Amino acid sequence: MEKTEYKAAEFDIANLLGWFECELAKESNAGSPIDARRELIRALSIFSGISEKEIQQSLEESNEGTTK
User: Fold this and answer.
1) Which has the closest alpha carbon to 16: 51, 44, 54, 58?
2) How many Å apart are CA 33 and CA 38, to the nearest integer?
3) Residues 37 and 23 in one domain
4) What is the span of the domain harbouring residue 37?
5) How confident is residue 54, by pLDDT bands cut at 50, 70 and 90?
6) How many distinct structural domains can be found in the chain?
7) How far is 21 from 54, CA to CA, in rounded Å?
8) Minimal CA–CA distance to 20: which of 8, 33, 11, 7?
9) pTM higher than 0.85 for the full model?
10) H/E/C letters for each residue in the chain?
C-alpha cells in the first residue's frame, strides 16, 4: 500500500469513527447497533490481528464494570 493511500485510509477510519459517534447519539437509527457492533469487532480483528473472541471477551469484561 502506498504511503498516501495508507494515510487516506487512516483519515477515513478516524472520520468513520466520528460518524459512528454521531449515529450512536441519535434516538433512532436505520440499522441495528448489534449488527454494527458485530461488524466493528470483525473489522478490528482484521486490522489488529486480535481474535474476535478476545475482543468480545474484553468488551464483556468492560461491560461488567458498567452494569454493577
Assistant:
1) 44
2) 9
3) no
4) 32-68
5) very high
6) 2
7) 23
8) 33
9) no
10) CCHHHHHHHHHHHHHHHHHHHHHHHCCCCCCCHHHHHHHHHHHHHHHHCCCHHHHHHHHHHHHHHHCC
